[in-house]
Write a structure and sequence with these properties.
The protein is an alpha/beta fold. It is built from nine helices and 19 strands.
């Protein structure tokens, strides 16, 4: 039996919940389809035990209708409180969410709307809002299959704490937010850690009296569209290294090196218990350092232009990482490496949407989240229209754009 619904929202994350909130304000019929059994699945089941937000709590409080619930706006909420926040959000606004419902496909219904095939039923809808997330599929390189079965391999989303891993050293491939934070926790617990350094830049946690995210927000960086990006800056560049643990502090790979972490270049190939590396560590470290330098210069210029009365600040210049040798071959057995953590991030996957609205990168072609296929929209992704619409700081904006479009132009139920 086919069900009928004016609007179907696919995904119960922040973007889907925000869109639902706005549609409720318009009294528009809709349902959220969430494939997992509980709200806040990523934070509940795909983050390590000591995880906290890396953006200050005020970014989370930008979700429409949300309240502080006693939390400091400048603090960094731990995972259990993040889960509670979303549980309370759904309950407070009575959002119509249907759990354990995986969407298998979305197809056009001959111009009359869309047919959504789920794991349990079929739904016809006038509108579909895809809110399944930007980070959907854990990224693990194919060469992982060439590594000896004696070595445990996990994606960073499966790491929980040092005791959850076999005894021995750990190789982490990827130096973004997850890779660096997990590396730090492991080496501070007494583990020997090897870390492959990538392109993710470093940002100071705080600079000249403010959190770095607050500065970027005030300067309008999150409001930039893809057309406004500086030359050479890609739309999908790596997210900079940040942490909110213990109130937040600056992550530095140079400090890791000083503390005994072995920094490595990019992974090139593997052969059972041998790892082959590109000798580009120092080049990567220079890129990491350059990110901080460029952002700090922007803030200084912004302060000068607004004539803000703020004291000067000089950040420490560490160079310990440059003192490390360039390693091109690593013997996993000889180094007692028993675990590899793949921390290269995630890929998006909208293959279940069988409507031709994607570019060559399989990324949606849209304007403010609205595609050229009437009633098919996307939320929770960057560049809809700005970078911020893919993150907590701007998800609400993208959701409101889509909800306004549906309420103003797409308000009729299929019969």
């Amino acid at each position: 039996m086919i069900e009928y619904m004016e609007t179907v929202i696919i995904g119960g994350g922040p973007a889907g919940l925000s869109t639902s909130y706005y549609l409720n304000q318009f009294n528009k019929e809709h349902v959220i389809l969430e494939k997992t059994e509980k709200i806040a699945h990523p934070w509940r089941n795909e983050r390590w035990d000591s995880f906290t937000l890396v953006t200050p709590n005020w970014a989370l409080f930008r979700m429409p209708g949300s309240e502080r619930n006693g939390e400091s706006p400048d603090g960094f909420m731990p995972k259990d409180k993040i889960v509670k926040f979303f549980e309370d959000y759904v309950e407070k606004f009575n959002l119509p969410i249907q759990y354990n419902t995986n969407v298998v496909s979305v197809e056009s219904d001959d111009g009359k709307g869309y047919i959504i095939q789920t794991s349990t039923n079929s739904i016809k809808a006038k509108n579909v809002v895809v809110a399944s997330g930007f980070q959907r599929v854990p990224r693990v390189p194919r060469l992982s299959g060439k590594i000896s079965g004696e070595i445990m391999q996990i994606h960073s989303s499966k790491y929980r704490n040092p005791d959850s891993l076999p005894e021995g050293a750990v190789l982490i491939v990827g130096s973004g937010q997850s890779g660096t934070q997990q590396a730090e926790e492991l080496y501070q617990s007494g583990r020997k850690v090897f870390l492959c350094v990538g392109s993710a830049g470093r940002l100071p946690r705080r600079y000249r009296g403010k959190d770095i995210i607050k500065w970027l927000d005030e300067m309008g960086i999150f409001d930039l569209t893809s057309e406004q990006l500086p030359p050479g800056v890609g739309k999908f560049r790596a997210i900079p290294q940040l942490t909110g643990k213990n109130g937040g502090y600056t992550i530095s790979l140079h400090k890791y090196a000083k503390d005994g972490v072995t920094l490595l270049g990019h992974l090139k190939d593997v052969e059972k218990s041998k790892v082959f590396l590109t000798p580009d560590l120092h080049k990567s470290l220079a890129m990491v350092d350059q990110t901080e330098s460029e952002v700090v210069k922007m803030i200084d210029q912004y302060i000068r232009e607004l004539k803000l009365n703020l004291p000067e600040e000089e950040l420490p210049e560490l160079e310990d990482g440059y003192k490390q040798a360039l390693i091109e071959e690593l013997d996993l057995k000889a180094e007692n490496i028993k675990t590899i953590i793949w921390a290269g991030g995630y890929d998006w996957d909208f293959s279940f949407v069988k409507v031709p609205v994607f570019d060559s990168d399989r990324f949606p072609i849209q304007h403010n989240g609205v595609t050229n296929s009437p009633g098919l929209c996307f939320v929770g992704l960057p560049w809809m229209p700005s970078e911020g619409t893919g993150f907590l700081v701007g998800i609400s904006e993208g959701a409101k754009n889509v909800a306004d479009y549906i309420a103003e132009t797409r308000s009729s139920v299929i019969n």
